[in-house]
Every structure is written in structure tokens, then in C-alpha cells.
Amino acid sequence: MELQSVIWYKQHRLEEARAEALRAVDICEGLGIVGIMEECRRFVERVQRELDSPAAPGRSINHRSDFDGER
């Protein structure tokens, strides 16, 4: 789910990216996986900021900086 949300983000499909990351948050919360859940929440916040204020075309993210928790 993390990877899919990042792919959609890079494709500027922000609504899909946000929805997929929120699904990941829900699943991680249910399983008690706090580290990944917090990473996903930070990513959702980042995507939401972009939805609220569109970014310049061609902008991309670094997957490790947005999902930097241990697995």
C-alpha cells in the first residue's frame, strides 16, 4: 500500500495516493504496527498539503524520506 500510494503520488494522482495511504494507516493501526502507521500518517499529511496547495509540475518525492521507519 505504501508503494502504491507513492507511485500514485509521483503520477500526480493525489486523491488516490491519499486514500491508499489512509488504508495503510487503518490496517497498521488495527495490527498495532505503530512505526509504519506514523510514517503513513506523515505521508498523508504531505499529500494533503499538496492537495490544499498544488505543487509545481514535475515535483517528486524520495520514498525513504516519507516512509523511513524500520520494517
Lay out the secondary structure.
Layout: H1 2-10, H2 14-31, H3 34-52, H4 63-66
Helix pairs in contact: 1-2, 2-3
Describe this structure in words.
By secondary structure, the chain is mainly alpha-helical. It has one domain (2-53). The chain is built from four helices and no strands. Helix 1 (2-10) runs antiparallel to helix 2 (14-31).
A few lines on this structure:
This protein has 71 residues and is mainly alpha-helical.
Count of DSSP-assigned helices = 4
Q: Mind describing the biggest β-sheet? A: none
The amount of helix comes to over 70%
Proportion in β-strands: under 5%
Number of strands: 0
Task: List the uncertain runs.
Answer: 56-61
Which sequence of SSEs, written as H and E, runs from N to C? HHHH
Q: How many domains comprise the coordinates? A: 1
Please report the distance between the alpha carbons of the first and last residues. 14 Å
Based on CA inertia axes, which overall geometry fits? globular
Rg of Cα set: 12 Å
Mean pLDDT: 81
Secondary-structure content class: mainly alpha
Give the key terms:
71 residues, 4 helices
